[in-house]
Amino acid sequence: MPEASPRGTYLFIADALRKEIEEGQVKDSTLPSEAALVQAHDVSRNTIRRALKTLESEKLITSVPGAGWRVSRAPIPPLVERLIAVITEDSLAVGDRYPSEANLCERFGVSRTAVRHALAQMEGNGLLATVHGKGRTVLALPTTEEES
After folding, report:
1. Does residue 148 belong to any structural domain of this protein?
2. Residue 61 exposed, middle or buried by CB count within 10 Å (0-12, 13-18, 19+)
3. N or C end: fewer C-beta atoms under 10 angstroms in the chain?
4. Is the overall model pTM greater than 0.70, yes or no?
5. In terms of domains, do 57 and 34 share one?
């Protein structure tokens, strides 16, 4: 009898499915059937169901009676990516004032701590500069994937 995985095989399968969802590899927001997942991962149906229930508890997928499992929502990009997009969305140029922490908290519905961490990353990447008492200004424009 083979030894059980110390972490649980269903968690490895849940991780693989999560990655596929995040990378947009799930067509029409519908996961393959349980039978197809059983065959693809060479595990029991119970293991697949545990993996799916894990993703359901994370509110990443939902069971639709008669239709299978569907992606609940599009994955939200990390806060840093969303804050970098503000430069483009607000048509900011180098030297323009970047929105305040309070404005960003309200705009994205996140805590000030989360905003500060993301802004620190942007400053570290050379996109923003902070002038004490004046706020943040755009130091450089973000490059797009095509330009890289």
Report:
1. no
2. buried
3. N
4. no
5. yes
